[in-house]
Amino acid sequence: MRAVREMTSGSPTGAASTLDVAALRRDFPILQTTVHGKPLVYLDNAATSQKPQAVLDTLSRYYAETNANVHRGLYQLSEASTRAYAEARLRVKNFIHARLKCEIIFTRGTTEGINLVAQTYGRQHVKAGDEILITHMEHHSNIVPWQVLCEEKGARLRVVPVTDAGELDLEAFQRMLSDRTRLAAVTYVSNALGTVNPVKELVAMAHARGVPVLVDGAQAVPHLAIDVLDLGCDFFVFSGHKMFGPTGIGVLYGRAELLEEMPPYQTGGDMILSVRFDKTIFNSLPHKFEAGTPDIAGAIGLGAAIDYLNHVGLDRIASHEAELLRYGTELLHSIDGVRILGNAAHKASVLSFVMDAAHPHDIGQMLDSEGIAIRAGHHCAQPLMERFDVPATARASLAFYNTREELDALGKALERVHEVFG
Amino acid sequence: MAQSNRALYEQVILEHNRKPRNFRGMEDADRRIEGHNPLCGDHFTLYLKLNGDVISDISFEGRGCAIAKSSASLMTTLLKGKTVREAEDLFVQFHRMVTANPDAPVDEKAVGKLAVFSGVREFPIRVKCATLSWHALLSALRGTHSSVSTE
Predict the structure, then answer these.
(1) Chain A contacts of B69, Cβ < 8 Å?
(2) Is the dihedral angle over the CA atoms A400, A32, A298, A5 positive or is it negative?
(3) Is A380 a catalytic site residue?
(4) pTM of the model
(5) How many Cα atoms are found within 13 Å in the side-chain-facing hemisphere of A383?
(6) Once rounded to an integer, what is the mean pLDDT over residues A308-324?
(7) What are B's interface residues with A at a Cβ cutoff of 8 A?
């Protein structure tokens, strides 16, 4: 955390200063490693991000010094563990600017958060003939849970189209909201294209028709400052591992009024007040939705990731990433036979592309031999791939620790791909 | 190119990828089968004409990575005029080679031209690419399914 401290002490307001990326990179042990004898160039951040030493230290310190189960023991360690777990929840609440701590439910990740809402709120409210509205750019995790629910209930899944530039068709969204719509589930940032959707506007449109909105924030949290009250959304889900935290921990934010009325998702220990064979009384929020021993270390690790992000500064991250995106876009345009998919006016730092000469998997393989890690595939967004008539794309997704030099390495390697396969 | 990729992307593979052989549909095919790898989005259609138990014509179309495409292409060139039994035997040898330990010697007599795919042994994830068209072929020959999937 040395780099971060120097930076923040030098610039208490933080707005105008730029990132000292070289110093920040030293906070990430994995970024010091080599692959096939070459320095690792990690450009697969939309799949998962790397972890700073501060998060790693928090995890190992938790297990070395604080480990005990939460909400149970009447001993010092358990109290410390319970307190740390509660503090992590508070950090998440502040991070997304929720109103109440109890509106923060820890999950295994975005996927579990969406399934939780589909299986509780969804099953409670969706009936035969009803509609659920999603978009053509959703990740499979924000398609399939709704599809399964619709099949079960005899409801209809409606899909808002995407333009050739990769933007959501807002007029269609407006038009497709109907009296039968029970929920709209939209991604904030497209994992496959990088498109940033105007979520606040979408929520306003939906609410005008009395439709609640779930926002898939998985790809938004590492790039954008989140304010769920300002967005106005009813549910907001994300994963820790995409924002420099550990895998296995995620968050469901829900408005307390909605969460209160929803039935539990899983049942068991910790989510009960009392159990008798004739009647069990469920615990209050957030515990009602956290059956069993939670991922205590994961939650605390996520709290450390939030601290880290706050120290780096999401505003500085945004300006550095915007500059990288601009540079990377120009670079890819300059290479023969490369076509970028997703040219939205408002984009996160994701470069999804195809090459005339080489299949994305061959591109990925060639890049790997240069130590460059990108994703090649359908990015769990097969309907979107079909929309653009490609089987797959190659995707370089950037984080704040990426540099121009790394993009230059990508460009050089792609030139070579063009030579070999062209 | 780094050493390992040079071994994977042999010139023969790159050449078949650029100019795949027997890359066409076949309206009067006796057998037609889809082969796809849902993880890659790769998708080929394989066409066969059989004269008794001899493969009298074979072609394919679709899209996929260089390994999948060149493997399908090379397969079609090797199997025209071969019996069903010979095709199955060749697949067994080919499969044995691409799933073998990277250090194991390649039995060039058994696999013939398919030895160019020995580099795949270093990349287990690409075995599916190399064998996609072969799995489709086997299924077509046995006439059991109208499509095969690697998953």
Answers:
(1) 359
(2) negative
(3) yes
(4) 0.92
(5) 16
(6) 97
(7) 1-2, 4-5, 8-9, 14, 17-18, 39-43, 63-67, 69, 123, 126, 129
